[in-house]
Amino acid sequence: MISQDDLEELEKKGYLDRAVDPTLDLFEEIESLKKEKNAVILAHYYQEGDIQDIADFVGDSLALAQKAAKTDADIILFAGVEFMAETAKILSPEKKVLLPDLKAGCSLAESCPAEEFSKFKSEHPDHIVISYVNCSAEVKALTDIVCTSTNAVQIIESLPKNQKIIFGPDRNLGAYLKKTTGRDLVIWDGSCMVHEIFSLEKIVALQAENPDSEIIAHPECESDLLEHASFIGSTAALLNYSKKSDCSTFIVATESGILHQMQKDAPEKTFIPAPPLNNCACNDCPHMRLNTLEKLYNCLKYEAPEMNLNQSLIYDAKLPIVKMLEISEKLGL
Ligand code: 13P
Ligand code: SF4
């Protein structure tokens, strides 16, 4: 049998991606592998459309973490990025957690190395640490409460008004939370490359061409863009808003994968991806897009690459995630 190390080496070289027989119906093959292995596929809204369609559950970061904590499947195939698969492993360490491409990282998580964050934390000794889930397991282990864009406002507001707070790693979400809650947060200077690539000038021009449209944005976007948005929220909140709103055209300022579900849920409406600064596809997250249907198939077939974390890291990183889940449950989120 091929060892885990060998498989990871093959995966790194792109071999697993190439080895798929092109005549296979990957939808059928993945469905039967899922049944055979009692596996569940959890996918984020930023995955390509086919992956969202084959998934058992598609959601935002909070909903995916909640599913990972509760599933009775033996295998969780996480169609997302590293920090999401890490969170699933931390919450369900007894399960096999697979990530189709181990190189699927996150620019925001990378902008916050644990050693530097630890130093930052020690410079503010009387502060409690709230970290956005888009960070490494090592940063989570330095955190008091994890949050997502769905519950960040409520988690901050659940703390006493005089509680000093460090927020990391996203400076844009941090600034948005500071403004929304009125709390004086100490904010780590990190950001997501996808959400900082939008051109406000082009977005404003696009809205002038579509005068009945609304701009909707993820709070990882910069504050000048957020000021122009009719609605700000997590991917799930943006999806829900666009479905229920009376408006029929939306300029969507977040990763473009979300348009797949938006269009599916409201086929009569028009969704325009917010334009980036250059003529590139930079509002496609390069990490999320490393996952392909072929890699998902190989991942389930060979049960690799697998997410593995050491026990003490799992122990330390679990507490702040569980706190988030408990607060969210109390709030009905
Ligand atoms: P949410 O889906 O929780 O809004 O997160 C967005 C994101 O950036 C995930 O990488
Ligand atoms: Fe990270 Fe941004 Fe990609 Fe989300 S969209 S995974 S925050 S780089």
**Average of pLDDT:** 94
Number of helices: 17
Main sheet record: 4 strands, parallel
Low-confidence stretches: none
CATH topology-level name of the largest domain: Rossmann fold
Distance between the termini: 44 Å
Which word captures the global form? globular
Q: How many beta-strand runs?
A: 12
Structural class: alpha/beta
Provide an overview of this structure.
This protein has 333 residues and is an alpha/beta fold. It is built from 17 helices and twelve strands. The chain has three domains: 125 residues, 3-Layer(aba) Sandwich (Rossmann fold); 84 residues, Rossmann fold, CATH 3.40.50.10800; 74 residues, Rossmann fold (3-Layer(aba) Sandwich), CATH 3.40.50. The strands form three sheets. It has a four-stranded parallel sheet with strand order 2-1-3-4, sandwiched between helices. It has a four-stranded parallel sheet with strand order 6-5-7-8. It has a four-stranded parallel sheet with strand order 10-9-11-12, sandwiched between helices. Strand 1, helix 4 and strand 2 form a beta-alpha-beta unit. The radius of gyration is 20 Å and the shape is globular. It starts with a helix and ends with a helix. The model has no long low-confidence stretch (mean pLDDT 94). The structure holds 1,3-dihydroxyacetonephosphate and iron/sulfur cluster. The site of 1,3-dihydroxyacetonephosphate has 10 residues, from loops.
